[in-house]
Amino acid sequence: MTRSLLSSIGRVLASALGRFRDDRRGVSAVEFALIAPFMILLYLGSVEISLALSIDRKITSVSSALADLVAQDDVITDDEISDILNAGAVIVAPFDPVPLEIRITSILMDAAGEVEVQWSDADGMSPYAEGSAISVPDGVLERNRSVIMVEVEYRYETMFGELGVNHFDISEIFYLRPRRSIVVSRS
Asked: Of 25-29, 37-41, 100-104, where does the model show the most confidence?
């Protein structure tokens, strides 16, 4: 009797396992449960990259717009430079303006070919010292001419800090020649 009981239990168990193995009703749910975390991560990653590219375009706009505002003038006052630096925060909206760092510098190459800082103002970073030597890429400056250099830096914090991607450091340097004079002076 014990043998027949074990034999019938074995047949019932084998039959139940066979039915379980052949049942395909939950396969889609199991596949979704395995794939869903990856798909959600992929979606959020693409959103994060899209936002980082948007802020990168904003930083480029900030640098070019601020250089253009300075280059249009022949003498910049403290109030004007303050307004221009504040314009950077407006341009970067709707992103957080707190990590925005801006430096605006007037650079002159004299007749001897020496390149030096005429004046520099900054928000969030240190300005260059007046008269200090500075290097610029070849072809940006000509002798007895100046250029306005705007440097913008932004640290974009991501939502993936736990995965090792804490932030993107975005920076832009924009050069523009003065339009109304050889040098944009400070008063």
From this structure: 100-104
In single-letter form, the type of residue at position 98 comes to V
DSSP, residue by residue, 73-106:
-SEE-HHHHHHHHHHHHHHHTTS-STT-EEEEEE
Task: Provide the pairing of β-strand 115-123 with 101-109.
Answer: antiparallel
Cβ-Cβ contacts under 8 Å for 100 (sequence gap 6 or more):
62, 88, 89, 92, 123, 124, 152, 153, 154
* Contact yes or no for 147/135 (Cβ under 8 A): no
Q: Where are the domains of the chain?
A: 27-186
With 0.85 as the threshold, say if the pTM is over it.
Answer: no
C-alpha closest to that of 102 among 130, 74, 77, 83:
83
- The CA distance from 3 to 9, in Å, is 10
Q: Check: CB of residue 73 under 8 Å from CB of residue 184.
A: yes
Tens of pLDDT, residue by residue over 81-91, are 999 999 999 99
**Tokens 């802020």, residue?**
55
Amino acid at 12: V
